[in-house]
Amino acid sequence: MKVQREKKFAILMAARDSEYVKNVYGGYFNVFVEALADEGEKWDLFRIVEGEFPDLDDLQNYEGFVISGSPHDAYGDEYWILELCFLLQTLFAMQKKVLGICFGHQVLCRALGGKVGKAYSGWDIGIRKVRFTEEFSFYGYVDDSSDEIPPTLSIIECHQDEVCEVPVGAQVLACSDKTGVEMFTFGEYILGIQGHPEYTKDILENLIDRIVSNDSIEKGFAEEAKLKLIKAEADRKYWERICKSFLKGRWITQSPTYCS
User: Which of 45, 59, 142, 189 has the fewest beta carbons under 10 Å from its own?
Assistant: First the structure.
């Protein structure tokens, strides 16, 4: 009788746990596992922001990798960010699935030859509607559910940097009124999402308070963002389906296109 191999995934954590997330959720790792893991899988944690990386010899044992968000700049030259870029180039060459979230989305772009930088329009904090391109709607995404993904979905955002130019050969799969590259793919193995599919509204509200406390945004801007959260809802279940389909299911891409 053939024994089925346990599927392994890894979270590359580019942020330290906040006290709130640690106390309420047990840490960001648990937030990701709750959103993306299925029964029978093994998920490992590597705190790359603290210099903890998987051994190169172990990379082949993983089905896929997820890079978290981070308060650091994806275009920064801290040693761990440069080491992460090398790791991502290695995973790309190995044709391993890599999902990048927020900072992860941006650093994936950088590592594979694209450009990232400060957003010209400033901070994007709150719940934003994202529009999918034709490639996503008709070619890019496939799963077994009969419930089709709508042409627009709302997602939690919290970033002041953005992808300015995707790598040559990559596709833009979604955009918004605020950000030109909300989602991109590079072949069947790379997917970047600017927003946070894993976040809850209370995680965002606490994050807004922390950003205000370190004077990164003005108090009035923060209060307005929190007020808008009262009525808005993110389409978390759809985003979780998209992420799981990419990491574990089928992903088909065609020629590049851009939002108009």
Answer: 142
150-198 pLDDT, tens digit each:
889 999 999 999 999 999 999 999 999 999 999 999 988 999 999 999 9
Q: State pLDDT tens for residues 187-233.
A: 889 999 999 999 999 999 999 999 999 888 899 999 999 998 998 99
Rounded to whole angstroms, the Cα distance separating 158 from 248 reads: 26
Contact partners, residue 260, CB within 8 Å, separation at least 6: none
Cβ-count burial of 21 within 10 angstroms (0-12 exposed, 13-18 middle, 19+ buried)? buried
- Active site residue ranges: 102, 196, 198
- Measured torsion, CA atoms of residues 30, 31, 36, 42, in degrees rounded to the nearest 10: -10
Q: What is the largest CA-CA distance in the chain?
A: 64
User: Hey, how many other C-beta atoms are within 10 angstroms of the C-beta on 169?
Assistant: 12
In terms of pTM, does the model score above 0.85?
yes
Nearest Cα to 232, choosing from 129, 131, 150, 121? 129
Residue (of 85, 238, 51, 242) closest to 167 by Cα position: 85
Amino acid, res. 142: V
Contact 170, 114 (CB under 8 A): yes
Whole-angstrom distance, CA of residue 40 vs CA of residue 153: 29
Q: Cα angle vertex 52, ends 50, 58, to 5°?
A: 165
The answer to whether residues 232 and 127 touch, using CB atoms and an 8 Å cutoff, is: yes
The total number of residues shown for the chain amounts to: 260
How many CB atoms are closer than 10 A to CB 178? 19
CB atoms within 10 A of CB 28: 23
